[in-house]
Model the fold of this input.
Amino acid sequence: MVGVDLGGTKVATAAANLEAAIISRVTRPTEPERGVDAVVATIIDSVREAVAQAGARMDDVAGVGVGSPGPLNPETGVVVFAPNLKWHDVPLGALMSEVLGVPVYLENDANLAGLGEARLGAGRGSKNMIYITVSTGIGGGLILGGEIYSGSSFVAGEIGHMAIVDVDEGPLCGCGNRGCLEALAAGPAIARMARELIRHGEETMMVDLVSGNIELVTSEIVGRAALAGDAAAIAVVGKAADYLGVGIANLINILNPDTVVIGGGVSRLGEVLLEPVREVVAGRALKPAFEAVRIVQAELGPDAGVVGAVCLVLSELL
Done:
């Protein structure tokens, strides 16, 4: 089997065995500016290369799973709209299957990262799991009853666009609304909060980390400072954790999961982020819902997408 994680900057591909153990990996730049045909050709070539590196042939491949930005339709294999790729109504599944000669299964990338964590990562053994990725944006995947829950039009799990604060006064989100979780707690929001603190005269090592140019402060810089014990950086992470905690409390009150897995680049802060998130959730969630859930850091890192794509193929086969 082969799993593909299609992103705006890179295509990560892996060949795996029937236990979903990765045998070979291939990473290539996406280069969406070259157009749809060129990107699809890159994906197809990466699949063939991963299979060859695994010492196999395409005839040995049971199927290819692809995680793509969406929204998309997993039933028809069509990417409806992918802004970072500048794609509209691209029949990716059919285009790949026709050339490769094997079944191709398409699913939202965050859903597949969640599936990977549920089957082989931090959510192993869970029945109902929420996956949240906190990076440049905030995305999510709902794994309910052990399977991906996609909703009526395949857009369930858009956790980042949950309204958290006053929709008239909150910061503008990329989706066009105000007050969304993504606009308050994703990487760019964390960087924005840090820069505002610095401009108000807060003393912090973050200034030294960017040699005095506060425009260079990113969420990664905030994270480095927070892990080093910088009070201002810890305060910024704490504010983002407050917003995340509110969102997670809402989700567990509605869905009553046994596990919430937090992934993405910001999750590398570990307990510096997770501990205040749990405190907020404990204060806001219904007691029986909070007592039933564990909130943990993702385990699979950058492999989550390709592992989930492989698990998607396994699910289709079984």
Summary: The chain has a mean pLDDT of 95. The first strand starts at residue 2 and ends at 6. The domain at 126-299 is CATH 3.30.420.40 (Nucleotidyltransferase; domain 5).
